[in-house]
Amino acid sequence: MSLRSIRCLLTALLLLAAVPPRIAAAETAEAGATPPAAQDQAAQQKKYQACMKLAGKTPKAALKQAMEWEKAGGGDAARHCVAASYMGLKQFDDAAMELERIAQTLPQDQAPIMAQLFFQAAQAWNDFGKSELALNDIGQGLKLNKNSVDLLLLRATIYGDQEKYFEALDDLNAAYDLTSDRGTILTLRAKAYRKLGQPDLAKDNVEMALKADPNDPDALLERGTQRAEAGDKDGARADWVKLIEIAPDSYAAEGARTGLAAIDVKTN
């Protein structure tokens, strides 16, 4: 799984849009009518989901719609769609700041949502090339939810990009203990161990990842890289060709094509 884009991780959260009290809804329900609170909440949720869908397809139109909705009282749901629209327009800094503002104004009893918003803001800053700002938001998110696998994996990825492999392993090991979905973790650990000159540990981790999912593009890219570095060009080629066949448009496939080209140059 790639952690490069917030667009793949914007979830359909109804972020505290103005909804009448639940007590009034319960009283109306006893009378046999559809409670106004439920009607309003359903309408807000439908509007939010439509706005987020539009942000993924036509972000410029979604931004205009979301801003108008916010002025009309759409609250945090509208602002979140504004942020999603900025992401679609690749205005990553604007998206990050909008997400931070939403997180910072939520009440403390919404800590899980706040942590997720800081995670999304961190992704936006990372896409904008501001890794230190991303790390700051990750730190804020982990204060709210220390067991967030998403936050730990994103920080490990950033540490890996900064060649801080020991720090990356600390986060990856912590994440490993918090989830049963470990394919991405194992692949990232394999890369970290390879970079630290621990080929046996690197091999063990990538083989575990591929045992769980033999067609995982990132794991195939990593094993191919390990094999190429060990001088096994045929093994590397087999992994990378398989990867390109399975996921030709993936980020991993770009790495596989680069690896195949390098093998061909050295062979010639």
From TrEMBL:
From the UniProt annotation, give the residues forming the signal peptide. 1-24
Question: What are the record keywords, sorted?
Answer: Repeat, Signal, TPR repeat
In which domain of life is the source organism classified? Answer: Bacteria
InterPro entries per record: TPR-like_helical_dom_sf, TPR_rpt, Ycf3
Q: In its UniProt entry, what is this protein called?
A: Tetratricopeptide repeat protein
**Could you tell me which species this protein originates from?**
Dongia sedimenti
